[in-house]
Design goal:
Length: about 80
Amino acid sequence: MTNPHIAVMAGHSGIGWRKSSFSGPDGHCVECARLTDGRVAVRNSNHPQAGMLLFTPAEWSAWVLGCRAGEFDDMAC
């Protein structure tokens, strides 16, 4: 069974990945990119070949709004 939220990198070499300005100098961070079909892809910048998580526009909006509202502040390191 495949998970529609996980994809391998094959065929996605032309994606314009964005890294957060909060990323540390050691390079530990995630990158995100909006795909041509409207979904948002997220990957580990240190292991881009490992694949990416895919989110619908509604899922991504819910995540961003939750972050802005502080819903995940207790998980910060």
